[in-house]
């Protein structure tokens, strides 16, 4: 037995991948609708294996994989985060900010009151708020402190153990609160509220889909006094609230590319695709005449397969009809989905439409499933380099050293690079399957190493922490959600669906969103989940460095 233990300690690569293998299997086990997930599963297995002794693993291994993970998170949520700040969903953004501030304030009061040290505190933040990325950002901040290596190792172990202890209630407790208790507080029946909102938004079940209605292709001749002459195509589409897209332009009987910055001239024939009501408005404009040129009917249609991601929301899908797009099929786990209101992240959509319309809507809902996509490695790695450099900057406020740390810096550069890539689709591509690997494997390899290194101290740390950590974690899990729920209702005047959906996003509780979707049979909660999730991912992640800074 000693020979096996010595061999494993000398070859940590085996325990690392064993933790991944068994951890992912553990994460798949379900008790009704609840599962611990891959990250907690990997951590539990790693902590168990870590009981055999002290593993010596180069810290660089953790840093590399965590930086890949956190940069990719920023890359994915960056576009939706920026859109959220610009959109009419500012109330949702405000609620997410309020939640993060309240959660952090409550946490700091409890940490000071019960004299919780920085390692335990960061772990509680990560587990109670179910934000695994905090482990990495807190670790990088701890490693930057002017303390001994032994103290750093002890704090990092406490982060992992406190996270493991508080995560389960942080998930299950909040899930129960949002699905069962929150509706009672708001005095609503979620199923009835969902039905009312679905009717209001014109989303119905059955074979008819509102996403296939009112779609037309029409051509217009622009006279000298047409109100859209002299304007760029993008300006025109914005003027009509993006109800249609200008797909083609005929100038002197020759087709020219309908780019966003193309300025229309008198005598141009434009081909538009989209909502009938907006066409009628355009036709009534003085100097704009509908034409029956057969050439405009020869528009090329394209069919693409799309994977819905966390950026999915029903507003984006509703916009499809405005751009003349149609969903021809939806699949989940190889089975057809007939009710469009039940679509969720991970579904595969087949969409047909004009190339320009597809190009406009695709970044809002997911990514195209295509073979042979390559990753722009230079773009990815320079982003991480710049992120690490940003994270190395230390600013003192009231003699308290404030720094994003390596992980926080990589997150913010990921946000910027993701936003930039959406604007310049020809560079910086990171295909969806690659992003999934970076997110899942990157985080869980990091977690496996953390668990193995913390395992030998698990029992002693658990005895030291006791019930205090569990109680504090439970309060931090529930109380911010309760306060923010009331804030959303009485201050922001949000309806119940937006209020609860936003909270699932603000707290990055995807499990709660899925449970509510299943309970109500609808994905309308994703409407407010998306901007909340984008903001929550960012704000909760940086709570790790802030906690370390304030308690060090």
Task: Give the key terms.
552 residues; Alpha-Beta Plaits; five-stranded antiparallel β-sheet; alpha+beta; 21 helices
What is the domain tally?
A: 3
Can you count the helices? 21
From the helix content, strand content and strand pairing, which structural class follows?
Answer: alpha+beta
Strand order of the largest sheet: 3-2-4-1-5
Question: How would you portray this structure in words?
Answer:
With 552 residues, the chain is an alpha+beta fold. It folds into 3 domains: 364 residues; 74 residues, Regulator of K+ conductance, C-terminal domain (Alpha-Beta Plaits, 2-Layer Sandwich); 87 residues, Alpha-Beta Plaits (2-Layer Sandwich). Helices cover 61% and strands 11% of the residues. It is built from 21 helices and 12 strands. The strands form 3 sheets. A 5-stranded antiparallel sheet has the order 3-2-4-1-5. The chain has a 5-stranded antiparallel sheet with strand order 8-7-9-6-10, with helices on one face. A hairpin with a 2-residue loop joins strand 7 and strand 8. Helix 12 runs antiparallel to helix 13.
Give the topology.
Elements: H1 2-10, H2 13-28, H3 37-49, H4 59-86, H5 90-113, H6 118-128, H7 133-143, H8 149-186, H9 190-200, E1 215-222, H10 233-239, E2 244-251, E3 254-256, E4 269-275, H11 276-283, E5 288-291, E6 302-308, H12 314-322, E7 326-332, E8 335-336, E9 348-353, H13 355-365, E10 366-368, H14 377-391, E11 395-397, E12 400-402, H15 405-423, H16 432-455, H17 458-490, H18 496-506, H19 510-520, H20 526-541, H21 543-551
Antiparallel strand pairs: 1-4, 1-5, 2-3, 2-4, 6-9, 6-10, 7-8, 7-9, 11-12
Helix pairs in contact: 2-3, 2-16, 3-8, 3-16, 4-15, 4-16, 4-20, 5-17, 5-18, 5-20, 6-7, 6-8, 6-17, 6-21, 7-8, 7-15, 7-21, 8-16, 8-17, 8-18, 8-19, 12-13, 14-15, 17-18, 18-20
């Amino acid at each position: 037995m000693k020979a096996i233990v010595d061999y494993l300690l000398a070859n940590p690569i085996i325990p690392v991948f064993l933790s991944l293998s068994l951890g992912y299997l553990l994460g798949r086990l379900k008790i009704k609708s609840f599962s611990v997930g891959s990250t907690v599963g990997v951590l539990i297995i790693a902590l168990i294996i870590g009981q055999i002794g002290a593993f010596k693993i180069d810290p660089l291994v953790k840093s590399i994989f965590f930086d890949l993970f956190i940069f990719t998170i920023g890359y994915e949520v960056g576009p939706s985060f920026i859109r959220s700040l610009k959109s009419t969903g500012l109330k949702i953004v405000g609620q997410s900010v309020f939640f993060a501030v309240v959660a952090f304030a409550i946490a700091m009061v409890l940490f000071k009151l019960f004299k919780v040290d920085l390692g335990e505190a960061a772990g509680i933040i990560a587990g109670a708020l179910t934000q695994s990325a905090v482990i990495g950002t807190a670790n990088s901040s701890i490693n930057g402190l002017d303390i001994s290596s032994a103290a750093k190792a002890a704090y990092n172990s406490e982060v992992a153990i406190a996270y493991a202890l508080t995560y389960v209630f942080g998930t299950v407790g909040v899930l129960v609160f949002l699905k069962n208790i929150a509706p009672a507080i708001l005095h609503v029946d979620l199923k009835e509220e969902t039905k009312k909102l679905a009717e209001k938004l014109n989303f119905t079940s059955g074979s008819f889909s509102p996403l296939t209605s009112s779609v037309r292709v029409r051509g217009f001749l622009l006279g000298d006094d047409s109100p859209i002459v002299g304007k760029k195509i993008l300006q025109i589409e914005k003027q009509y609230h993006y109800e249609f897209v200008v797909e083609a332009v005929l100038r002197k009987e020759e087709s020219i590319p309908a780019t966003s910055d193309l300025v229309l001239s008198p005598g141009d024939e434009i081909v538009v695709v989209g909502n009938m009501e907006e066409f009628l408005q355009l036709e009534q404009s003085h100097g704009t005449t509908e034409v029956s040129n057969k050439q405009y009917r020869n528009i090329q249609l394209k069919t693409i397969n799309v994977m819905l991601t966390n950026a999915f929301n029903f507003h984006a899908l509703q916009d499809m009809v405005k751009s003349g797009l149609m969903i021809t099929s939806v699949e989940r786990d190889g089975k057809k989905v007939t009710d469009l209101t039940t679509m969720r992240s991970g579904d595969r959509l087949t969409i047909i439409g004009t190339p320009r319309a597809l190009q406009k809507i695709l970044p809002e809902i997911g990514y195209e499933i295509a073979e042979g996509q390559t990753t722009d490695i230079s773009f990815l790695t320079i982003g991480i380099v710049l992120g690490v450099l940003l994270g190395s900057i230390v600013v003192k406020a009231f003699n308290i050293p404030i720094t994003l740390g390596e992980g926080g810096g990589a997150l913010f550069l990921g946000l910027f690079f993701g936003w930039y890539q959406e604007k310049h689709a020809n560079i910086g591509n990171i295909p969806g399957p690659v992003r999934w690997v970076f997110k899942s494997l990157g985080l869980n390899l990091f977690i496996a190493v953390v668990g193995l290194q913390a395992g030998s101290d698990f029992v002693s740390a658990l005895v030291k922490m006791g019930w205090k950590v569990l109680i504090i974690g439970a309060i931090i899990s529930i109380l911010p959600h309760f306060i923010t729920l009331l804030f959303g209702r009485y201050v922001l005047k949000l309806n119940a669906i937006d209020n609860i959906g936003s909270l699932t996003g603000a707290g990055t509780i995807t499990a709660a969103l899925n449970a509510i979707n299943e309970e109500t049979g609808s994905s309308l909660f994703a409407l407010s989940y998306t901007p909340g999730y984008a903001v929550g991912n960012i704000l909760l992640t940086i709570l790790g460095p802030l906690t370390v800074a304030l308690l060090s």
